[in-house]
Amino acid sequence: MHDAVMTNHTAAKAPTLYGVVAEYDTEQKLLEASRQVRDAGYTRWDTHTPYPVHGLDEAMGNPQPVLPFVVFGAGLTGTLVALGLQTFTNAIDYQFVVSGKPLVSLPANIPIVFELTVLFSALTAFGGMLAFNGLPMLYHPLFNLPRFARATADRFFIAIEAADPKYDVKNTRKLLSATNPSALEDCYDPQDGKIPFAFYVPGVIAACFALIPPAIVYKMRNTRSPDPKIHLVLDMDFQNKYKAQSSSAFFADGKTSRPQVGGTVARGQLHDANEHLHTGKIDGKWATTFPFEVTEERMKRGQERFGIYCAACHGYSGKGDGMVARRADQLMADKKESDWVAPTNLNNESVAKQTHGELYNTATHGIRNMAGYASQISDEDRWNIILYVRALQRSNNAREKDVPPEELAKLTAQEFTITNGPGLHQRPEATPAAAPAK
Amino acid sequence: MSAHTVDSSSLTETDVRLSATTSKGMGIAAAAGVVGLIAAFALGGAQGDKWKSFLLAYHTAYIYFISLSLGALFFVIIQHLVKAGWSVVVRRLAEIIAANIPLMALLFLPTAIFAFQAPYDLFIWLDLEKQKTDHLIHAKHAYLNQGFFIVRLLIYFGAWSALSWFFLSTSLKQDQSGDPKLTLLMKNVSAPAILVFGLTITFFAFDMLMSLNPHWFSTIFGVCFFAGSAMGFFALLALFARRVQKGGQLKNVVTPEHYHDIGKLLFAFVFFWGYVNFSQFMLIWYANIPEETIYYQHRAVGGWFAIGMLLLFGHFLIPFVGLLSRYAKRIPQILCFWGVWLLIAHYFDILYLVKPNFEMNGERYVSLGLLDIACLLGIGGLYVANLLRMAAKHPLVPVKDPRLDESLAFHNI
Amino acid sequence: MSTATATTSPESLPDNTNDDPNRRPALVLGGLDATAVTEEVCRVNEYKTPMGWYIGFGISVSILGMLGLMIAYLFYNGVGVWGLNSPVGWAWDITNFVFWVGIGHAGTLISAILFLFRQNWRTSINRFAEAMTIFAVICAALFPGIHVGRWWLAPLWMAPYPNQMAIWPQFRSPLLWDVFAVSTYATVSLLFWYMGMIPDLATLRDRAKARWQQVLYGALSLGWRGSGRQWSVYEKAYLLLAGLATPLVVSVHSVVSFDFATSVVPGWHTTIFPPYFVAGAIFSGFAMVVSLMVPAREWFGLKHLITMRHLENMNKVILATGCMVGYAYSIEFFIAWYGGNPYERFAFINRAFGPYWWAYWTMVSCNVLTPQLFWFKKIRTSIPAMFIISIFVNIGMWFERFVIIVTSLSRDFVPSSWGYFSPTFVDICIFIGSFGLFMTLFLLFCRFLPIIAMSEVKNVLHHDAPRGGKGHGHDEHGGHEKKDDQSQSPNTVSTAHA
Which chain B residues have a beta carbon less than 8 Å from that of C339? Predict the structure, then answer.
């Protein structure tokens, strides 16, 4: 018997006739017999061989399998999934640039596109084969025949089902015995195919256990726990290193952060003796000149740097209407009092009349709410910015005589409406600029 | 009764000898060839650019046709090496295509004449000045110099002519005697032959194509050229077989089973070409090193970008899908449609390898016109004429090959 | 009952390596029929386990145990227990990975590519080789898994699932392409191997006496009953899988080569890497198959099925792929000179004459010189010679990966960064341990699963007849009444080749 698991013999129905089975010992006989059965018009019948016999599909009249088309469709799906996955994750949902490559790097995506195409196709080929073949099917009435065991070894079988419309107890047997089989017998199906209780119990138990992980996840996501986190990998979570603001048992003053070692100068901190360049003073007095020759290049550089560092608050025109200021105004709009101090309008006289050195000093150390930019902008660049600020001041306070004649001609030819109101929430002109902080 | 399996003993003279009508084609092809060449020279001279455009057009067409014969030689060698049975019915056709190499050696003369003199427009490294002053050319001048180049050319043409002559003549000898020892002889020669072939085609590609930009290099370049050549050959083989059948020969000899296998190999080499070219492109793109990317930068704009896209879709993606199905490979008309398609695509591949390396009047050279057609007609006409000439002289199948019956009875999976 | 059993002594086995063009040689010797084939193969699983198997298994499991201990030690202490340093950040770990993946490729080639080429001789060895592929891929996958510093995070960056850190994998990285490629390869190989086994598992099921065997083989064979309709779909699926596995196997080792070739490191960045690696993989894989097959056919008494012809063919493939590897070495070397790039030129001089010269010359002598012995038929058909040569080839291919990875890393652009790598005992023990894993799985396979594809061998038994259009199964009795262009092709391989 070939039922993988024996059933408990509960009240079985009477065995029914499955069909008639003929056995052959060569593939030639099988082929011949198959043609006869096919030509006789039977539809519910099958052959059983230990290997795929050459020519049998034709002899049986088997149709071409549809599997290739299904697999092709699956492959195409794989291609699209791979393209979609890579584009979505790296180019849409969380864009980041790696090695300067474009967000959608098609050449880099091809390997995975290919792999997923093959994977989807292969899984479908296998799964499709099982599906089209009705596998797994652990029980089949033919397994009740002891001789049928040789169907997978060295014998060839034809089985015609009793359910076939052309089936006739006498004639079908006659047809088959005329094909010279080595054995011809009827196959009965005991009809006791109840699923044993033994299958239900593990199934139910497994189903119960399968509910546990989602339940745990649900609980975790919807409750809070006062317990500390479980640390599986201790030396990642508790690293042997000191953090900047922590206390230290090692040093006498108890601090982890150490001052600069006496008598040393860090890289980038060694300044030459150029007082003018580094402090904005000449012999202790504020410089009124630039510490270098003024060139177009420097002006452009100053413009660029101003746009990066200063324009956010002071605005591109220096009027103090940068995005930060405008946003602050929005936020403060319905508040009666605020401690928001607007960025200075750099074109004001109070600023314009300061020396270059004083402006440099402000940029270096900051003033009022403005932080110093010494750590972000190099000394030279700060001077370049001041150069540009001077240009801004001049342009914002320009008179007709300052405009080149061609430009003037162009401007006068057109009509303009000039609005030159003060920046929003400017400090009044009258207040003298506070002494620069030192 | 419909098509039955033919036995080698039942093959008749009409089955295997080229008919007169097809032979007439030989005359037409030869005439077209001569006309084409004259037109090419005329147009080339009329350009007034010291034969530069002529050289480029001629070189492209030249490489195109010789690559088909190289693919054929590869096929013949491999079929002997692996003792293949299915291919015997088409092997003679392949032997004939391979035997066109001596003609191609001769047709190299125009290139040699114009390229080996100032202003060295094609092989710029021939310029002795550049060998001294350009540091990259100087670094390789021990290899890229006229003398060694000529020696190598003699080796390539010599080896290939010898091999193609050997396989064709031995096969013809077997037509008389049917001696199975000749099959063994050809098999034994095929093993060292494939090594010689592999090395010669690689260095041929380096010399003829890669050195056109002597600042650039790629280790897989020889393999890329080989892939395209083999693919072009299979396309040509399908067309040749069909042409012969249309003339009434080999009627039940070359069957859909054989076309199926030719189609499978054609498909395989379409894929392989795509694979090696993608490898080259992606690796160069990924590392983004300027001395390598210059190759693709030259091909990234304007006309060359369009041709690159044409190659991606026309040489790879579309034929890949088109040749996937069984039926496309088993129905000769469909297979030959793809054969023609891929032969055109192969020409664009060679074009893409040759022309973008050059500038004309300070701009990247992109041109495809009458001059190219004339060169194709010229070289191609003579090529086809010689094919037909050889085909007319000999039986179209190796009539006494021991594996002929196996090939005639062949059934595909 | 079987008509011819394996009683013919090995010495009197006919030589089927003849090259007579008039006939194709027999692939199954001793005149075995289907019954005898079934007996010969099933006997391996059904007879009482020989003592030799237990001894072998004991050794393998011990080595596997050592592997487990070493990995635990590695995980606990971190990757510093290896000899890796700066600049050599990859050494034995990745060498071993590429080594094992490469070995796996032979199985797929034998199964899929030789199937597409209608090489019937593959039927005796494909099951064996496919099993070797699966186990080799498992050994390979081990190394990327353990070589990351924070192994507990590996699943996070490999799999594209939404996670707490709001990160996605970096799809532009070849290391991730590797993950997809090797996983796909493992899956498809497993499917192909298992699908091929279903009919043979059914054979074992139908012969099984013990209950546990009936249950095991019954479940695994899914109720297969050899139905003609089922065979039809099965054959189509087999062909599809073979057609898919062929480009897959090429792509997998190409993607592995991309790990190196996409970089700018001299000696790594070269466009020929993909096909060169694939050729090398097939080379080492076939060598491993020969190394395993020579003892296996002896111990399991399978000489009628795995004949000298099979071995000779495999040796020819080894020779061919060895020549391809040699070709790639030469072209790399030539282009390094031709390109004029001083770093690239140095990389190759360094390989041959630098501190790792011993590894380089081992590689060249094992990979290029040794296989050349296979030009001689006497050596190709000599069991001791081929066994030794196959071992050498595997050693050579391990060294090839080592040379590529370590020499280029140890000396790249800036001399002040140069450094020498030496392995630690952990490196060495983990590598040896991986062989333990491989052999354990392999011995289990030999014991419990059908090691030769019986149904496929039976299929080709009848097609060894001499050529000539006669005695050809499908030609007789009007086997093909309609032969038009649309004819449905029969569902089996039709001609015996090689």
Answer: 217
